[in-house]
Amino acid sequence: MTPRAPSLEEVAALAGVSTGTVSRALSRPELLAEGTRTRVLAAVDRLGYVRHGAARALASRRTRTIGAVIPRLGASMFATTIRGLQRVLEADGYTLLLAHPADPSASSLPALTTLLERGVDAVVLLGRTHDPALFERLRVRQVPYVLIWALAGEASAHPAIGFDNRRAGRLVGDHLVALGHRRFAMISAPTQENERARDRFLGFVESLTSVGAQLPEAARIETQYGYREGADAVDALIARGAEFTALVCGNDYLAVGALAALARHGWRVPHDVSVVGFNDSEFAPYTIPALTTVRFPIEAIGERAASYLVERLRGDERIASVELPVELVVRDSTTTPRRGSLPR
Amino acid sequence: MTPRAPSLEEVAALAGVSTGTVSRALSRPELLAEGTRTRVLAAVDRLGYVRHGAARALASRRTRTIGAVIPRLGASMFATTIRGLQRVLEADGYTLLLAHPADPSASSLPALTTLLERGVDAVVLLGRTHDPALFERLRVRQVPYVLIWALAGEASAHPAIGFDNRRAGRLVGDHLVALGHRRFAMISAPTQENERARDRFLGFVESLTSVGAQLPEAARIETQYGYREGADAVDALIARGAEFTALVCGNDYLAVGALAALARHGWRVPHDVSVVGFNDSEFAPYTIPALTTVRFPIEAIGERAASYLVERLRGDERIASVELPVELVVRDSTTTPRRGSLPR
DNA sequence: TTGTAGGCGTTATCAT
DNA sequence: ATGATAACGCCTACAA
What is the pTM of this model? Predict the structure, then answer.
């Protein structure tokens, strides 16, 4: 853009109208006389005129941009949520702007700031735990926002769209218990810093406790989400002699890695060990064997969040918070435990 | 932002300086006297002042934003390239803005337009095939750009960063041929509309031809990239009675789906059929069995593109085009063919 | 239906 | 080292 892109003024000159008219031709064509409109649009086309977003934003005080603060985009399910956000926003003429906190467990205030600098009309925040200063800034500026992957009411009065990870944990526990399993292992993200992992863990243990079973410390591994991490975790469990007939994996990447490692160690799934994952991702049916998982409404979160904000920006003040359902999808990777079938 | 975010002027008033000084305190603090600087920054902090990007862009004629036109982000390797782009750009203080062409095979001019509207300082384009009007617009405005996932010289004088998909195809062919395979099947993206899929296909066939082997029409399937698509393709190949001892999958998603389907049909990999994928993605080592693939420098493409543009924007005029190396990674999914071992 | 003109919040140039 | 003041390109009342 260094030299000089054609401006409204040039288009106006070429079309023989005023700049105001050109502006209208572009944003509210229905206000113009048929003839003027076509003439102006022809000129626009001829010059390859493109509207200057910054100038527009400055003058109109809106950017038609929504910002989202999302940590760990790389290897996670959030990408799917974003797809949902994107899709709906796009349909309404909004653009999505992403910001990653530098360090996942750090404050997201800097990330919010970069979004605010860019003039986002509203903000999406992932999770329920955020710096109070962040909410304060949002409040002062009256920027609409919504939490996603979080539930309202959890001691927070913020609009939120998500599902119950604790319930998801219980679903998994109940399923395995019902099959007859009593000895478990679990690989999950660090429960200290990841509220969703923590909830799933708590729910799972809750379920075990109700039948008097438990999850020994030695059968728990906390690690980052990833294929290799899942495989390494299984290696570690086996190395330390953990005994279990059912393995719960905190997300789908971990599960895939774990399945590969189990196969390498000669453990047959589900004959020797049942495996369950969270998040029924697109490839869960195509692992070997097909993976029993909890289906999360991941994309729906994004869609709902987007449409809430869009309506909010239209002036609609309705309450936002939504709890979406989770559901267990049983596939080939789980079955009843075979007594003493664990290879050593 | 509806009510009114604090402005430079308010900060200036609070700090008892002029707006110019506040501006400098934020962008070139070293020009200010120590005392003034701290006083101003305190005021900034106190008011929770955030710079107004649109106004800055308008006045400075730069946005520190790079745009990228990328089709089919959903299920593809481009995501990794973007991570590379992102990382490097971020380190240099740039922000990445993405635009998807509405329809993958449509012109990317509208996508470019949305980027231009937002005032991107430079543009990344995926692939070598683009509307001439698009290049024209870039030229007129003197917006720097670079093609990625494309090679320079292919009848195009555009700066480009990518690798040789044709060579990748040959690597796969040579590997299988060397193992003794002579009967092949291939699942790939539509070669009509996907130049990369086409190149890989051509390279593969080239390799076969050189030893007098061939790829019968009935042993070829073109489909979109995806797990299910890979599985369905295998079903189709088997249903139509295709006979092959080696299966080549155009990308990693297809390969994973194919492996699952082969297992379902009782075909053991690699005992009954060798399988090769393109793109050595993170999970390739964790499929069952671990997948032989071509390793593409996917993330490097993004990194190189980013650093080229950054330097270019600094005024560096050096030639950009880079051909990155591809490499075959042999794992457990390929072996010598066992005569007549194909289950029916 | 169309033209006119006053901002929008910064940056950058010139003085001082 | 700091202040004053034109742009920057468009939108949007308001007027005609």
Answer: 0.91
